[in-house]
Amino acid sequence: MAGKYGQLLWLPLRTFGTTAFGTFGRLLRLWRMYAALDLAFVAADIKLVLIYLCSDAITNLAAVTGMLLLAERFAGIGVWSKPQVIFMLGYATTVSGLMST
Asked: What's the whole-model pTM score?
């Protein structure tokens, strides 16, 4: 499929059958296609890229700050102490960052 972005969106149409390998291969091809479409959409305009980056940073900062303020105000959350809350917050932020890439 040649077009404005050349061969960026081309995906082979091979089928591997209904095995687990075939399903995983299809999943990887779909992820590749979605990543190419997202990149083409976001990279079309530098202003759009900056808006997305700023809004994502503000949202993540607000979520982390809110959780830390709650943990400080109530000396922990539930039975979790402040260090446990900070650890879980760091873990959740790391996993969220890995899942969104």
From this structure: 0.52
